[in-house]
Give the backbone structure.
Amino acid sequence: MGVDRRPRCRCRVGPGRFEVRARIERFAEPAVLLLLAEGESHGYRLAEDLEELLDEGRVDFGNLYRLLRSLEEEGLVASNWSEEAPGPQRRVYGLTCEGAALLDAWAASLRARSDRIGALLARYEALSPAAQPRDARSDETHRERDPSDDQAGAPARPRGRPRRGDERALRPRRRASLKPGVTGEAGPAGAQRPGPSVFEELADRYDAWYDSAHGRLLFDLELACLRPLVPPGPGPCLEVGAGSARFAAALGLEVGLDPARAPLRLAAGRAVAVVQGAGERLPFGDGTFGAVVLVVTLCFADDPAALLGEARRVLVPSGCLVAGVVPLDSAWGRRYEAQGRAGHPFYRGARFLTLAEHRRMLADAGFTVTGARSTLIQAPSDDPVEEDAQDGVVPGAGFIALQARPQPPVRRDRAR
């Protein structure tokens, strides 16, 4: 009998359908180091926490204890017998300084791998239908499919992620959340939008704008408007369309996502974990974040409704969304839109929306607006002045921050 040499990380579940579990060798090691960095623990508690963290089924206790013994022999963890809890003594493990240094090295390596994975996924997303595999282009033509299936041939998505049941999921995607994003398709009135490479080339120029007197003042005004609406919440916080992570760092957000690589490189040293990816297909599991922040992002998104749907998916039920917007029905919004029509390299990629349109999109995505703040109440100029942000929506304000929370699911009682 021959040896089955097919990869163990995947299996065929039907014609043209595969189940893939992407694994990283020895991923349990950094997971254990992380859990011990969060606090001392004993073996049974570690096993339970690992099952929740890795989501790969039951943890083999024999393998776990062998890993702990190996780490202890290397001086990376230390253990002692605890008599504090009732019942039998338990060996409690803790992280040493050497173990903390190893965890730092693991984090650096995983960030590098995340960048490579992000680059692969970005290139996959950029495939045109003609270039995608035939099965990936088919919609419903080859077979009857269970409504809960993902798109045929598409990458496995996190469990519970809503699938999009139309052909938009397989169209070549414009990169979402470009700030100042540009895409390769025609904009309003047929204006040609520049390709993604333009933003890669202009990333340094845009980031440097924040250091100018004009940019620094506008940044400070918008930051002061946003900050009270981003409460400390359960779990980490994410900015979608983070660019070079200026706002994410200033707001104390842990994770920033953007589809463009160049601005993410500029985020180095700002204490934000950055991920390359599209806002309409967030590479995170359901209920991962306590808050999702969008700062002048929806106007650059390919599909704002899909982006908001993804934001809701990755929020914990008690989390919140904070969207900073430049309303079209403000003097600032009209000014930026006019500059875009005149060929401004950044704003010609934007589609500014009225405040009412923003509210309607939030409601359609399952959010309820729970707070708002306004700034840039002054008239647009090249020399803005300091002003205090005001609570609530000020008509005509050039920057409005909206806080919204997921609406609870509607309970449908079964008919008696």
Q: What stands out?
A: The first strand starts at residue 10 and ends at 14.
